[in-house]
Task: structure prediction
Amino acid sequence: MMKKILAGILLALLCLHDAAIQAARTFGGASTDRIALSTYVTNHATTTWSIWSYRTGDGGGSFGRMWFKGSTAFDGRLYTTTTKYFFDRESSTSDGTWSITRPSASVWHHILVTYDSGALGNDPAIYLDGTSQTLQDNTNPTGTISNNSEAYTIGNFLNGGSPSQNWAGSLSEFAVWDVILNQGEITALARGISPMNIRLANLKCFIPITGIHTTEPDYSSATTKSIGTVTGATLTAHNPPVQSVFWNFGESQNDVTSDTSAVPFIFLHRRRN
Result:
């Protein structure tokens, strides 16, 4: 136990600089603004995607992307139109497309999607600020679910490698798990708990988007980290309502709303706006 405590204190001290000044990045100053991840190309049978978003407009082509997996083709994407937020999952014959009414602009919102691609008839679940939303425009994929080996891009769409549909606004805390999180965990994330405290062993990509590094580091449990190369997206002064350092010395809580077994965290550096 003492080794875990000392390791946790050391990690917290190493993260203190980021936690003290972390904010987010703003996209849309140019149509090429983006964060391109280097090595995270894996598709999972069950997946949870999480991101904090602050929208100021419709983005490039009125299809601003929060995240996009693929380059010459796509596997999945989360984006806005003028009225809705869409989640798409590509398939060989026709793509799965689902949407929710988009939330208010110029406010931080937590957007989370869970999806089981094991059966074509499965629908995703889309959560806004921790609450499951009614799906609209529901079209199930047909054929074979796409599983390419192309990486993620945050804040833009790469069509053959040419960015053209930048997000308009700010993004922070992009995370991917290879499991479907439960409601307690989803609620915790929407309340500002760090992804590092939610099933760390299953956290396969976590880009906090601190805005203070030349590249954006990956704090997930993955053996090979996926570095985010930044193009254009700049540090923004307004923080998302999250807690940068929430570390329980190596233990991961499965349901932070009911499980009291974890050791308390030691830093809550960022406060709600």
